[in-house]
Amino acid sequence: MGTAKLHAGAYGDVSERRRLIASLRDIFGARLATGEAMRRQHANTLTWIANEPPDAVVWPETTREVADVVRLAGTHRVPVIPFGAGTSLEGHVNAPCGGIALDLQRMNRIIAVRARDLDCTVEAGVTRRQLNQHLRDEGLFFPVDPGAEEATLGGMAATRASGTNAVRYGTMRENVLNVTAVMADGSIVKTGGRARKSAAGYDLTRLLVGSEGTLAIITELSLRLAAIPESIVAAVCPFATIDGACNASIQVIQLGLGVARIELLDAAQIGAVNVHSKLALEEAPTLFVELNGTPASTREQVAAFEEIARACGALDFAWAADADARRRLWQARHDAFWSVGTRWPGKSVLVTDVAVPISRLAECITETEADIRRSGLVAPIVGHVGDGNFHTIPVFDPSNLREVATLRGFLARLSQRAIAMEGTCSGEHGIGQGKIDALKREMGTGVEVMRQIKRGLDPLNILNPGKIFTL
Amino acid sequence: MGTAKLHAGAYGDVSERRRLIASLRDIFGARLATGEAMRRQHANTLTWIANEPPDAVVWPETTREVADVVRLAGTHRVPVIPFGAGTSLEGHVNAPCGGIALDLQRMNRIIAVRARDLDCTVEAGVTRRQLNQHLRDEGLFFPVDPGAEEATLGGMAATRASGTNAVRYGTMRENVLNVTAVMADGSIVKTGGRARKSAAGYDLTRLLVGSEGTLAIITELSLRLAAIPESIVAAVCPFATIDGACNASIQVIQLGLGVARIELLDAAQIGAVNVHSKLALEEAPTLFVELNGTPASTREQVAAFEEIARACGALDFAWAADADARRRLWQARHDAFWSVGTRWPGKSVLVTDVAVPISRLAECITETEADIRRSGLVAPIVGHVGDGNFHTIPVFDPSNLREVATLRGFLARLSQRAIAMEGTCSGEHGIGQGKIDALKREMGTGVEVMRQIKRGLDPLNILNPGKIFTL
């Protein structure tokens, strides 16, 4: 086991791990794997953070089985790392101290859909795609859309995921009604009922949402659903300047126009998408907007949006209401991430996710663009600008130490810039291993409060150690 | 000091308390009081829960002073109880173990209003009335409306308050962007920035919102604001049956009609209001609705609402758009609580606040009405039915032991009924001292998780002990 050298100190040694794996094999049989390829697949695979595989992978099928694993792991003092679809971008599923990866993909039952309450209950391994396919015939959908269709709802809750729809429908913070979770001592807790509001004690739901598997393993969750809107209108418009595009977004939010999505692609991002998707869009900062409502209200909104956009220097204004035309209009946005890899083949990419108060958005993006230019980096920008949240996608060669140093400097300045504007180093990807230092700069003494909570709930530090903060 | 007999055990004894008060007098001078009347005013005064006064009251003016009090209290192992306006209904401000009441009313500065970001930062002692008066000229308002104009925003955050507007604008859970708080060790923590979303570590903001002063003292907070809507329309309609009124509410929510408020008064409540406010409303279950939007969208909403209401057995339908007419139409709702005391003079009242999933609302209210009749109680009903949340207001004589026993039985059944419907014993008033047993029934093992968090953050149990759970 390659990670054995890390296992000194507080955790069980190699023989403890062997005993634990033997006990787990008795329970799980073929649902336990220790082959290197499988272990590596269950560590960080999507980003430049080094792959740190667990000692073994198990596939539980019930909350009770998850509790059994956690209890046994506690006895042997071995870490447990929950694993959804592995789409995390900050090393959340790595096993820096070894341990057992708990792959929840077999916990994929949709337990109940309650159309009258606009909610549902699912197991943690249910994916977004699976849930939304299941809901389609009921005229409902689950609105949180981080881009990855195969992301599991448990993983999305654990990382407080959001995405394009958050400006209207909120993030996982607003859309998780309750979770069932296994605590570090193996006890099973349900954090609340399904009433839309509650003042019944500490908000355990919101505490576990975004806790990245460090406080509990989420095994089941109840989610808010939304009715598929009667009318959906898409609009796309390029702007003379990125400042104009940002200011249009700010006004849209301030007027409470009720947009469902408002996304910005900068000129470099449009260029990449033109190559990847064989489009011929004008290489200018461009807003992609979606408006949801009744036919009358979306008509009103389109007119209001066009007026704002023109006043902010929109060069053009295209809109569409039927599904196919909308899809064509939004294709550039959907292909944004993938296009960067195509445009610069052989390079690595990473994705940042700072967020700032909306009034500082134009300033933050403009300063960041200037920083990208000064640093000699290539880094297209795509943003959920309605939330003040934007991604840069730096393109780099991880074997070129000078390039990596330049990139690290840029990342540190970007976080610092957002924090100085009363924003955050992470609007939606979470801290994981990648942003531990940025979180310290952002939260100061707050990190110590997080550590106290962690020590109170997981005194042996067996749940996903080495994420969010060091202990 | 009348509560000295309770101070045995873990807390500092009478001489420790004397030394603490002497130290505090050195700092606070005339901003410290030990007179009995003042101490009693800073304990529970609004409900039937016995008044348990603190040993002394102090009026800090800065976060730093709050930290000084908490640090000194920790040294002497004496409790600290934060106090806003004293409008809590569940004994949150009582001092069952004695201690220092920390009255935050002098921390009443509005630090910043940022219209472009639709947010503001205030000290904890700022009241709703004060903030909304300050905002009026900017065309903005703070939407969370628990009824009490003089409630402080710090207290509202600490109890996760909500009220009539929550169906559209959310509760304190959704409207607090961050808090500055003093932890049990006297350290000062800011729980986040002002970005609309964040995935930066544990959600300390949501953990402190609703923690009832048991984890930290909130001294400052940033809040989301809303634009005063262009068009506000009020509608009132009596129904043949309470079931019809509930079903109309359910459909309104399911259709996503975008109501800002939807309130139910039952026939007994309308009767009380007719007496109190000299009105002549039909004594029938009645919905009070407010719709916010553009002129076009509110027109659309009124029409849709009237159609739903008629189909559910509405007996009449009155609506108004100008401010004076709206106020007249809604007067019965605004006067609801006060009318109960007028209608049954000399009696005590209390207010329950269960919430259930909206699909169970009609059933829960109907069963509760039957229970009220069977128990021989008088208990008008008024509810924020859009959230599945409703109040009963039992009228009773606290010196009549049989009446009190009947009432206690009713309260236990009401909580149990809501919990069995996957609802909560408290939609908005919190747990305090009054619902400790109900919370145990509702949360089961979750209460132990709350205790672990409490022990992690306040190992000496000096912050508002005896609330939410026993340790």
Concise summary:
The structure is a homodimer of 471-residue chains. Chain A is an alpha+beta fold.
Question: Could you outline the blueprint of secondary structure elements for this entry?
Answer:
The structure is a homodimer of 471-residue chains.
Chain A: H1 14-28, E1 32-33, H2 36-41, E2 56-58, H3 63-76, E3 80-83, E4 100-103, E5 110-114, E6 119-123, H4 128-135, E7 140-141, H5 153-158, H6 166-169, H7 172-175, E8 176-183, E9 188-190, H8 204-208, E10 216-224, E11 226-227, E12 231-238, H9 242-254, E13 259-265, H10 267-277, E14 286-293, H11 295-311, E15 318-320, H12 323-334, H13 336-343, E16 348-349, H14 361-375, E17 381-384, E18 389-392, E19 395-396, H15 401-420, H16 436-443, H17 446-457
Parallel strand pairs in A: 2-4, 3-4
Antiparallel strand pairs in A: 1-2, 5-6, 6-10, 7-11, 8-9, 8-10, 12-14, 12-15, 13-14, 13-17, 16-19, 17-18
Helix pairs in contact in A: 1-3, 9-11, 9-14, 10-13, 14-15
